[in-house]
Design a protein that fits this description.
Layout: E1 5-15, E2 21-32, E3 37-41, H1 48-56, E4 63-68, E5 71-72, H2 78-88, E6 89-92, H3 104-114, H4 121-130, H5 146-158, E7 164-168, H6 176-193, E8 196-200, H7 204-207, E9 212-215, H8 219-230
Parallel strand pairs: 3-8, 3-9, 6-7, 7-8
Antiparallel strand pairs: 1-2, 1-4, 4-5
Length: 231
């Protein structure tokens, strides 16, 4: 069976203020199966968020392949990647990225409208009910607690029945009492929909709950150390 996600020789570098390239990401090979749940860990600055952005098509890698369900998205244009992401990839941001002018229900519906999946009201209500917010659909983000906002973000990420869900430090802005509830919610909803889940976390108590944990190498720190030694 082919992997749902396959990365091959994936590389990304940014420009240092001096103009020198600063490697941030170097992934020779990685695969995740349909429905698999993987925790990604590593030191701050090792490229975890950049990796998620490359998988989602938000950022284009310098080289390599990002194959999702048999299709390499890396060489495609930005508009193409945007459309593909809307229909195939869910993303849970640590800062939620909810539209403040819209209600919780409207926030979940917006992604479906953008992806051309019609009105989506029934699906949005179903998802809000599943994350325990059926009674809060009419509330705007500022009227919700931090934990409730993250629940809306989870519902929105699942709205288009994605093949892959990417979660970038989804508990970074919730209090410890809500941390486990958020992790349990994401994992359970991905199991229900058979969605491949990749979650970035600094919390080892979170990573240890996943059947598979992958540590990203600190490429940029290694390069910096080599440069310092050469001076």
């Amino acid at each position: 069976m082919a992997a749902m996600l396959s990365l091959e020789n994936l590389k990304k570098a940014y420009r240092h203020p001096t103009g020198e390239p600063l490697p941030i990401l170097d992934v020779p090979s990685f695969q995740a199966e349909k429905g698999e749940q993987v925790a990604l860990i590593g030191a701050s600055g090792c490229g975890k968020t950049t990796l998620l952005h490359c998988i989602a098509g938000i950022t284009k890698p310098d080289s390599g392949r990002v194959v999702i369900d048999g299709l390499d998205i890396a060489p495609r244009s930005e508009p193409w990647r945007d459309r593909f992401r809307a229909r195939n990839v869910g993303y849970v941001f640590q800062t939620f990225h909810l539209m403040q002018a819209f209600s919780a229900l409207e926030n979940v519906r917006l992604g479906m409208i953008f992806a051309g999946r019609g009105d989506g009201t029934a699906r949005a209500k179903e998802l809000l009910d599943r994350v325990g917010l059926a009674h809060r659909g009419g509330n705007k983000p500022r009227q919700l607690s931090v934990g409730e906002q993250q629940r809306v973000a989870i519902a929105r990420a699942l709205a288009n029945r994605p093949k892959i869900l990417l979660a970038d430090e989804p508990t970074a802005n919730v209090d410890p009492a809500n941390q486990q509830a958020i992790i349990d919610l994401i994992r359970e909803q991905c199991r229900l929909e058979n969605v491949t889940l990749l979650i970035v976390t600094h919390a080892m108590e979170v990573a240890q709950q996943f059947p598979r944990t992958v540590r990203l190498p600190e490429i940029n720190l290694v390069v910096a150390d080599r440069r310092a030694a050469a001076v």
